[in-house]
Specification:
Distance between the termini: 53 Å
Strand order of the largest sheet: 5-4-3-8-7-6
Largest sheet: 6 strands, antiparallel
Radius of gyration: 23 Å
Order of helices and strands: HHHEEHEEEHHHEEEHH
Number of strands: 8
Shape: elongated
Number of helices: 9
Oligomer: single chain
């Protein structure tokens, strides 16, 4: 059995102490409460402070929880709220399109699938919740890279591996693709990631009008893009779904 890492256990205990006690605690209070030497406690606090998880009041020298924890907490809540708000709309989209629907968010230099509605034809399918997709080749990824500055930077800095002969990898060509996505409000992936598979995606925004995810319809290329032309009704349906979820998140009218 793997052993626990003592420094991480102590850091976690420190964060719980700061969360459950007074608003601010001094070094001596923290050290004595956790049974640590002051030097050890100070080293852990210093690391947490550098990472933004703890802040030190300049006047009193006391410590409190930092803004980075709030950001991480909000991110967790945003993902779960996004999925909750999208359940009905993505079900409707899968039913009306006859194809699979994916909801994705930016995560670790890629797209994390947080919700997947099966294609409603009773065929054997694999649940893809928790799967990662690349930013540069998928419809979901291109939408996020076009709308989210962080995703854009990650997509431009990453190695854009060619998955098929259609994958766009050159920086200038990829930037041109993102410009087109911004201009029209949706992205496509026609056999750029998987042979025989096409997808259309549109961005989801929150109450601050910030991109928090993307929704996509994915299916066989002959159904989604017959004759090499994306079905206009699918594009419209995906955009309507994304707008509906955005409105439920408080984004207002688009």
């Amino acid at each position: 059995m793997a052993k626990n890492i003592q420094s991480l256990e102590r850091a976690a205990a420190m964060l719980r102490l700061l969360a459950g006690g007074e608003r601010r605690l001094g070094l001596s209070d923290i050290a004595s409460s956790l049974g640590l030497a002051k030097g050890t406690a100070h080293g852990i606090l210093r690391t947490l402070q550098l990472e933004g998880f703890v802040e030190q009041d300049a006047a009193s020298g006391r410590y409190q929880l930092g803004a980075e924890l709030l950001r991480l907490g909000n991110s967790y809540l945003d993902v779960h709220e996004l999925r909750a708000r999208a359940l009905v709309w993505t079900d409707d989209l899968a039913r009306s399109s006859g194809e699979s629907v994916h909801l994705g968010v930016l995560h670790q230099h890629g797209v994390l699938i947080v919700h997947h509605v099966f294609r409603p034809d009773d065929s054997r399918q694999v649940l893809e919740v928790g799967a990662m997709q690349p930013l540069h080749s998928t419809a979901l990824g291109k939408v996020l890279a076009a709308c989210d500055p962080v995703a854009h930077s990650e997509a431009m800095e990453a190695e854009r591996r060619p998955f098929t002969a259609r994958t766009v990898t050159a920086a200038d060509e990829f930037e041109a693709v993102l410009d087109l996505v911004r201009a029209r409000g949706w992205a496509a992936d026609t056999e750029e990631t998987w042979e025989g598979v096409a997808a259309v995606a549109a961005p989801v925004h929150d109450r601050r009008r910030m991109p928090v995810g993307a929704v996509a319809v994915t299916g066989a290329v002959e159904r989604v893009s017959p004759g090499g032309v994306l079905r206009p009704e699918l594009i419209a349906a995906v955009r309507d779904c994304a707008r509906a979820v955005s409105r439920d998140l408080g984004a207002g009218r688009f």
